[in-house]
Design goal:
11 helices, 298 residues, 10% strand, four-stranded antiparallel sheet, globular
Length: 298
């Protein structure tokens, strides 16, 4: 029994240490984006950090990290009822580390004050990469995630992503008013877009692909050629044509994006009259793609 407890404690300590390491690395990336690039150029990139940037502009004695932490405290209290104790405490840890490192970087990191477009782009890259590192361990940085879910609770028809977008948009409008400059709003949009694209690329980029459905009388030949030339498997699905009510076989195949062109060539070389549909897949889990264990470790 003692050995089991010891092993369990060791596993917990290792997991906690790995979580903290991810939080630190993510915080360095995110705070670099804010402290080095966006804040010195009067760009508020939406969310709590954007709001903290605006407040810091009028009250320079209050560091951005401290302001962000203070804003997040009531949000984390709300999060207890939305997320439960485990995720809320995990988020509190990430928020505290992010706030601390942001304050440290505001003292020691050299600010970039040059081309605001470059500042928005590189700021967005750093912030997106930093957030991705934190999200990979199943944590969050609080802020608009909490407010978005809270709005969804009162307005069920509103999607969480859309709610967060509305909040960020309001912060960007506030920044334009605070800085008396419409370009602040525009550069903030650039930073937000860049951040979200980098975040999605890191989290899902390696797992994206295409789901292809093929209707053809030469399904066996097409499937065998796909397997032989691309190494991807195929699945036959049974279908019925709504117009003729004739039985049809549908060949289903998942491929990486770079394999899609080769797949199309195979299909239409064998059957020029084939009917082919493709859908984007944000994540593909299974043999030949991503291991299911890694996908659940987030």
């Amino acid at each position: 029994m003692d050995k089991k407890k010891s092993a369990s404690s060791l596993k917990f300590a290792g997991t906690l240490l790995l979580d903290i390491l991810h939080d630190i690395l993510g915080a360095i990336g995110y705070s670099a984006g804010v402290i080095i690039f966006t804040a010195p150029n009067n760009i508020a990139p939406g969310g709590v950090s954007g709001l903290a940037t605006i407040i810091n502009h009028f009250s320079p004695n209050f560091p951005i990290g401290t302001i962000s932490f203070i804003i997040n405290i009531p949000l984390l209290i709300i999060a207890l009822s939305l997320w439960g104790k485990k995720l809320t405490l995990k988020t509190l840890k990430s928020v505290a580390i992010l706030s601390l490192i942001t304050n440290i970087m505001s003292t020691y990191a050299p600010p970039y004050q040059g081309n605001p477009l470059l500042a928005a782009l590189f700021g967005g890259v750093c912030m997106g990469a930093g957030l991705a590192v934190v999200f990979l361990r199943g944590s969050t940085t609080g802020g608009t995630d909490i407010v978005g879910r809270l709005l969804q609770k009162f307005f069920p028809a509103m999607q969480t992503g859309r709610a967060i977008l509305v909040i960020d948009f309001c912060v960007l409008l506030l920044s334009a008013i605070a800085y008396h400059n419409i370009e602040t709003f525009l550069y903030g949009m650039v930073a937000m877009f860049t951040s979200s694209k980098v975040l999605d690329t890191i989290l899902y980029g390696a797992d994206t692909g295409k789901i292809v459905m093929i209707v053809s009388d030469k399904k066996d030949e097409i499937a065998k050629t796909i397997i032989a030339e691309t190494g991807r498997g195929c699945t036959f699905l049974k279908g019925v044509g709504a117009y003729t009510y004739a039985d049809r076989d549908i060949t289903l195949c998942a491929v990486r994006k770079h394999q899609y062109l080769a797949l199309k060539k195979i299909i239409f070389k064998i059957d020029p009259n084939a009917f082919c549909m493709s859908l984007g897949a944000e994540e593909i889990i299974g043999y030949g793609f991503k291991d299911h264990i890694k996908s659940t470790e987030r």
